[in-house]
Design goal:
CATH architecture of the largest domain in chain A: 3-Layer(aba) Sandwich
CATH topology of the largest domain in chain A: Aspartate Aminotransferase, domain 2
Largest interface: A-B, 66 and 65 residues
Number of helices of chain A: 9
Oligomer: homodimer
Order of helices and strands of chain A: EHHEHEHEEEEEEEHHHEEHEEH
Number of domains of chain A: 2
Chain lengths: 373, 373
């Protein structure tokens, strides 16, 4: 492979060259069988080993306790928005939602199709609530939140606390396997694969077993977590290739040093960018409060917002691509998932300095009509 | 790639070597961009071209009329079992189901979670009904059938006729893009990709536009066909790599001569096996009536059923793999999708003769205790 672009896309995102190389080397003649992974049946021992290996690795990496199941689904995050309430609502129950940005808001809206919902916290996309800022109903079927808001760049340092007997449900789509997590604090954790651990078309669900079996009889078979649990996540043909890639990614994460190491790297990558932005406040604006800044998605704006297109074009010329903010909010976003090399963050920091230097020089030379066209 | 095994799996199934080679050559540095298809964002012009190209090719191959939408979903066939009734049931409506084998039976069972269902035909897995054998309610929301029953090897020569104003719905999961179809006879056609046109994790839905927008408000967003129609099948991150592979497969089908050619090949492949089995009725039993025999899945049994394991082992030694029947029915099944080379069918026919010769010789030499152990 040629020298690669630095892809700051929010997902689907970069993958490690080592993983891409392994796909190229082994997927086409899998295990010397002359059958490729693309053609592998889902009832073959080869696929069972891939799926079992992925499950075991996730269990090991996150130290998932024995009373939790690890399930694999299709449909992406938006299907989970519906599957969570369909599976966890009791009859006539209500669920509490902490809203910190687009994804938790969308999840809450979807839950409203299924049952009643209380807003435990309504944020404006700038911070994760402190313990005194949210209130969960003690009778809630569950307390839902999004551990990392990809669009707004808001991440929880620590998970919120649910009242006793209320299961905590987390969307970890954009920070799963990026740091250690105390799974025992959760009733359910779900994440889609295409950010930190694979390609689109696969989601993982970690669920405490006592929360299985609560779905109403009219819930579709493929929306029922119990069915995935009972069938070892093969209620029908699973997305075999996506599971294979996730298994390679989990293996790579383990080989690189596990979740402590992923977290160190994530902190190093995001810190170098945040500190550069903080130093250059005349040019860059950071909407997210410091204690809620995401290690995964660094969201910022130019003080001169009209220059955003020029900033992005200059970045692309340097091989730094997909830095545009989410279409719903604009601005700039650098997504820094597990596969982003430190060098990628360093090159972005360099560009931030260079761009700021040029902008400030231009401002100084013509203070009255900066960017006046 | 080394000489490949002949993979008779019912899906995931064989893929053409030309398509596998193309994935290896272009997926890792897509369009010279040094970004691989595995990392391609779903809002990039590159992916839009892939998705649009697949949609256009399916429209061309099947001559899909202008008043039909072509949608791409995740979840596989079993999710479609729920999506079809969720989208097509009117308030208080009833749907009619033609049951010809496992897949239509499962679809009917799933529809019962959503609404009321009438059985228009209850078959025993040996034939598709003649026009006088099924009865669809004139007030049905739709008439559902499975165009090719993968487990039982039962295929319709011509689609059933629905009463006027009742949309006909077909599951074409295992014979999609294997022959021309008059789409205008249908309200909805759906198929999963992993048999004739790609890998698992993708389904295609062809729907007449007047059937969009009928879903109840509580239907989950990702279960609503209107949402896929409105967003060009990107309501969320679609299964990008599966769409890319399907696009390559559709391109390959077109380049090889289109659906007339796929049908000629399917008829040639299945005929050589059926005619060999017919000649050797002392050794092989064919449960499906001749006029309903599937071109895609040749299902048969040994007269001496106990010898099935030995038959399969002998086949595997010759590189003919995955010939076991579906676990629910046992026996033997040779799946012959678009990618199966004629040589594969010929090699199976040779083995059928060879195995039969040996069995008959053994019977003649010890008629009283054949296979007595």
């Amino acid at each position: 492979m040629r020298e690669r672009l630095i892809n700051f896309g929010a997902g689907p995102a970069m993958m490690p060259e080592a993983v891409l190389r392994r796909i190229r080397e082994e997927a086409f003649d899998y295990c010397g069988s002359t059958v490729s992974v693309f053609e592998l049946g889902h009832r073959t021992p080869e696929f069972e080993a891939i799926l079992g290996g992925l499950r075991d690795r996730i269990r090991r990496l996150l130290a998932v306790p024995k009373d939790y199941d690890i399930l694999f689904c299709q449909g992406g995050g938006r299907l989970q928005f519906a599957m969570v309430p369909m599976n966890l609502f009791g009859a006539g129950a209500i669920a509490s939602y902490i809203v910190t940005g687009s994804w938790s808001r969308n999840a809450q809206r979807e839950a409203l199709r299924i049952g009643r919902v209380q807003t435990a916290f309504a944020g404006n996309g700038t911070h994760a609530p402190r313990p005194d800022e949210y209130e969960c109903l003690p009778e809630a079927a569950y307390l839902y939140y999004c551990d990392n808001e990809t669009v707004h760049g808001v991440e929880f340092r620590d998970p919120p606390k649910a009242p006793e007997r209320v299961p905590l449900v987390a969307d970890m789509s954009s920070n799963f396997l990026s740091r250690p997590v105390d799974v025992s604090r959760f009733g359910l954790i779900w994440a889609c694969a295409q950010k930190n651990f694979g390609i689109a078309g696969l989601s993982v669900v970690i669920i405490r077993r006592d929360l299985l079996g609560l779905a109403a009889p009219n819930v579709p078979t493929l929306m029922n977590f119990s069915v995935y649990s009972r069938t070892g996540s093969t209620p029908n043909t699973p997305p075999i290739f996506a599971i294979y890639v996730a298994a390679l990614m989990a293996e790579w994460i383990e080989a690189e040093g596990g979740l402590e190491e992923m977290n160190s790297r994530a902190l190093a990558r995001s810190s170098i960018i945040y500190s550069t932005l903080d130093e250059l406040r005349d040019v860059y604006a950071l909407p997210v409060e410091p204690e809620s800044r995401s290690r995964m998605n660094v969201v910022f704006r130019l003080a001169d917002e009209e220059a955003t297109g020029e900033f992005l074009a200059g970045a692309a010329r340097r091989g730094l691509i997909n830095l545009a903010g989410h279409r719903s909010v604009g601005g700039i976003r650098a997504s820094l998932y597990n596969s982003m090399p430190m060098k990628g963050a360093e090159r972005l920091a360099e560009y931030l300095r260079e761009y700021a230097g040029r902008t400030l020089a231009r401002k100084r030379s013509s203070p009255a009509q900066s960017r006046g066209r």
